[in-house]
Write a structure and sequence with these properties.
The chain is of the alpha/beta class. Helices cover 27% and strands 13% of the residues. Helix 1 (69-80) packs parallel to helix 2.
């Protein structure tokens, strides 16, 4: 008789040995002191074509371009070891999206990060929220006083989006108390100066900025 292998679709290999926290059961990242402030960032879809490995790999792309990392993470370990580190995947959390989907995407963010930490790869957690309804789970699994990353790309298209980003940023700083925050995308002083007393901000231009306005990194 053929052996039947059941796959529940949750990629349990990613979280073997992990602790889980909160009602949603979000995996906890390890509090590993092996992370530096990135010199620059490179998107996951370009890592096979670059010779510059002194960068952190980010996933600030449409989910369809990196969703396969859930099943294929082991295939990328050797390649990612060549880089300075990895920012955890930016799985989407959307306003009015089902809460269970948002929790699942937060779970996958931490699960991939935990897996790469176990392989000895420096990991910076990407923090993503939707609106206030996500605050009870979207910060879970991240150590306090750790370096974290956020992206503003596409977050300032409307007044509502801008307000929700600022509310989330304020809550994130209160809950996680990060020493350093990487900001991928636009970081206007008019919005971010209020946060400078609470953390060290480090800006990295998005691909859109670099290809449309030749913007330079500003810390």
């Amino acid at each position: 008789m053929a052996k039947i292998i059941l796959d529940d679709g949750s990629y349990p290999y990613l979280t073997e040995g992990a602790a889980f926290v909160g009602e949603a059961g979000i995996p906890c990242l390890m509090n590993v002191n092996n992370v530096q402030i990135p010199k620059s960032l490179i998107s996951f879809d370009k890592i096979k074509r670059t010779k510059d490995k002194y960068q952190f790999v980010h996933f600030y792309l449409h989910d369809k371009y990196f969703a396969h990392i859930l099943r294929d993470a082991p295939k990328y370990v050797d390649l990612l070891h060549q880089f300075d580190g990895v920012i955890t995947p930016d799985f989407s959390l959307l306003i009015n999206q089902s809460k269970c989907i948002q929790q699942t995407n937060t779970y996958y963010n931490r699960a991939v990060g935990y897996y790469f930490q176990k392989q000895g790869i420096p990991v910076i957690p990407n923090i993503r929220w939707s609106d206030e309804n996500s605050f009870d789970f979207c910060f879970l699994g991240v150590p306090e006083n750790y370096t974290v990353s956020v992206s503003t790309h596409g977050c300032f298209k409307s007044k509502q989006q801008k307000e929700l980003f600022l509310i989330g940023m304020t809550e994130m700083l209160k809950v996680l108390k990060p020493r350093d925050v990487l900001v991928h995308g636009y970081m206007p002083d008019s919005l971010f100066n209020k946060f400078r007393d609470d953390t060290n901000l480090h800006r990295y231009p998005s691909l859109f900025e670099m290809t449309h306005s030749n913007s330079k990194v500003v810390d």
